[in-house]
């Protein structure tokens, strides 16, 4: 049963990843690709797309770091409230 739950969680995470990937791809494409008169991607479109993706990755990393910091602060506050911090060992 535990294997099924783990497999189910993996499938859920993969679906979330694909949804996020599709959203980022669509947003960057809509923002950056403007010329459909040629089969080639123009250099400014490439630059824009790369910049768009970099911004997204940096934003995601920053949000993740802030979430971790917030979570740590909340755990410390709960521990302090429960009297678990600051006690001599």
Question: What's the quick description here?
Answer:
By secondary structure, this protein is mostly helical.
Blueprint of the fold:
Blueprint: H1 2-32, H2 43-81
Helix pairs in contact: 1-2
Pfam families: zf-Tim10_DDP
InterPro entries: Mito_inner_translocase_sub (IPR050673), Tim10-like (IPR004217), Tim10-like_dom_sf (IPR035427)
Protein name: Mitochondrial import inner membrane translocase subunit
Task: Describe what this molecule looks like in 3D.
The chain is mostly helical and 89 residues long. It has one domain (7-82): Helix Hairpins. Helices cover 79% and strands 0% of the residues. It has helices at residues 2-32, 43-81.
CATH architecture: Orthogonal Bundle
Contiguous low-pLDDT stretches (5 residues minimum) are none
Number of helices: 2
Distance between the termini: 41 Å
Overall 3D shape = elongated
Per CATH, the class reads Mainly Alpha
CATH fold descriptor: Helix Hairpins
Secondary structure: number of strands = 0
Main location: mitochondrion
InterPro entries: Mito_inner_translocase_sub (IPR050673), Tim10-like (IPR004217), Tim10-like_dom_sf (IPR035427)
GO cellular component, one term: mitochondrial inner membrane
GO molecular function: metal ion binding
